[in-house]
Amino acid sequence: MKKLYLIFALLIGISINLNAQWFWQNPSPQGNKLNSVDFISPTIGWAVGEFGTILKTTNGGASWQSLSSGVTNHLMDLSFTDEINGTVVGGGASSFFEGNIILRTTDGGVTWNEQTSEAVNALFGVFFIDENIGTAVSDQGSIIRTTNGGATWTSQTSGSFYLRDVFFTDADNGIVVGNSFSTILRTTNGGANWSKIQTQTISGWISVAFSDANNGWVVSESGKIIKTTDGGATWTEQISGTSDPLFDVSFVDSDNGIAVGGNLTFLKPTIISTTNGGENWNAINLGELYLEIGPLNEVSITDANNGTAVGDNGAIVRTSDGGTTWTEQSNNGTLLDLNAVYFTDSNIGTALSSSFTLSEILRTTNGGTTWIEQSRQGLLNAISFIDSDNGLVVGPDGKILKTTNAGTDWTDQSNNAIVNDLNDVVFLDINNGIIVGDEIILKTTDGGTNWTEISDGVTNYLSVVSFADINNGMAIGYDTQTFAGIILKTTDGGTTWSSQIFPDTYFSSISFPDENNAWGLAEKEEFPVIISKILKSTDSGNTWSEQSLGISDFFNLKKVTFTDPNNGTIIGRGASGVILNTTDGGTTWTSITSGIPNGLNDVFFSDINNGTIVGDNGLVLRTTNGGVTFVEDNKVNEIPRGFLFSQNYPNPFNPSTKIRYTIPNGSLSGVEGSRVQLNVFDVLGNEVATLVDEFKPAGSYEVEFSTKGGLASGIYFYKLKAGNFVETKKMILMK
């Protein structure tokens, strides 16, 4: 039942409270990664995950209730024996692998009590045969057993490492699996002795499940499945039909079973099922669900029809026909990446989501409580509304769409002569609007019916535009040859523009709330990191001064927005999301470490109180009090304590870009380095470049990816694999 593929990301050591001033709207009821799920009947089940997340349903997942665990540890597995008795295990609070957590409930999850044991490392698996007798396994090979419901735990000798899962068919007979040296351990005396079982199939085993005393299955991180028919004494390989990692398997009887996992290159789900004990495994066609959710980490089936799987970013999916079809239970709009959001008042808003080749346009009329998909288009980059009915969206290749009926219909207003990528749009009033993009500025004076190309000062890639009033505006970007940062300024509504150059600086966002005050987010290259900075101007952009943010350099700050000269918000990405808030014009910033692994992409405030943040995998956060924190927040640990894999810089790029990564030292990762593979893929999954394929000592590295060999413009993916750490990021080549 245990998942390892991104577990090293948990080493970063971040404060993990999502302040009550920001709350989840999507996914629902929350968006933290879910690692384990356990149903004791078709209707009653629990799920656990990162940052102390515990959920419960009593209606088959039609609704889920968030339970208070009282901890912020990453929870990895749970085991319930009836409606009231259950145990949850996980990693340490400050450092995942250094320490662990055991939680016990005897009232169905209403309250949880922490238990102690002799195990010193993260616990990955737990299994109870009844309310008293249970076994848990740890990353460093510890096996612990209780016969009194966890009041006391006794250590057992395993002789192995990296144990991931455990299953007992009765009080005496059990199997433990691990992902090091094809570990399978067997006991017939309650764990007093464990013997290693040799198998002909070599793989890193992740999960084990039995349907009865004799029949059991084990799945691996390389997509392999083995089966036993003699209680685990011998094992034979089955043909799974997939090479994707499988993270869990569940059987309801000797015939019917389901295994789940994911494609780690594109972070997509994998589900396979069998109705003949694994003699044949069938890949499940998930349809559009495949595009909307990530890898699945665990599955629990209660009968031949009903099953639930959980995964990354709070994903919960349900089957009622034995796994043939699956429906989302965690989607309040979309689970695709949300890249842009715009509100015309506190209730009415529009958001853009994106996949490889399409964007969804979503609409809310109740402040984000529900989001309705209105339209699907090609890729789109930005959105702006004049009022609740009239709005525009823009995208690559000169795409301009307009609505006059609140998004019910969208009319294509693209000009065939314009093929530039359009990145941002803003309307100054019902008639006047500005679009910026790749070496282009467009202006309309008739509400978007016609657009005039402005040539003044436009020889650069422009990404964001902001206007203080109908005359005064700024746009940011960079020189496509030198990559120097650029700020353009207009005082005549966008007809003419003047420029300022900022060497070795990349601007990601700008906010211009009145004709005097402006803020720009900048990133300055200081190897081995990119330093995030906030610049402020009080003279309409003529001069700029740096303000102190007081946060880690390792955050990639994405967006700044001010509702007036005093109140502003910044969002960023890193090992976790970060939200910064100021009420004094940026003199001081309060850091809210949100504890969300999803990247934060955009933020919009319709007034000083009501704001919405959107991000990867359908993330939507909402505040109705300005996002101000009323208690002192924990600071982010500024020392990277695990693998770091940075977004390429610059992005978009032409013809080359730089990629940075960090390998942690041995005291934290257990190794003094790692074999590193860094590869680039196109959208079809074809490998187009190998950038690194060798052992690297602990340290920070930078590699340059050059496309002078002739790659076409478009989206590419680059994947880092270092030891058990695997992560994939997206980059855009624009020629």
Give your account of this protein's structure.
This protein has 735 residues and is mainly beta. Among the domains are: 7-11 and 29-328, YVTN repeat-like/Quinoprotein amine dehydrogenase (Methylamine Dehydrogenase, Chain H), CATH 2.130.10; 644-733, Macroglobulin (MG2) domain (Immunoglobulin-like, Sandwich). The chain is built from two helices and 63 strands. The chain is elongated. The relative contact order is 0.09. Mean pLDDT is 87; it is low at 1-20, 629-641 and 666-671.
Number of helices: 2
Number of strands: 63
Write out the strand line-up for the largest beta sheet, numbering strands in chain order.
1-56-55-54
The low-confidence parts are 1-20, 629-641, 666-671
CATH topology of the domain at 7-11 and 29-328: Methylamine Dehydrogenase, Chain H
Rg over CA atoms, rounded to whole Å, is 26 Å
- Secondary-structure content class: mainly beta
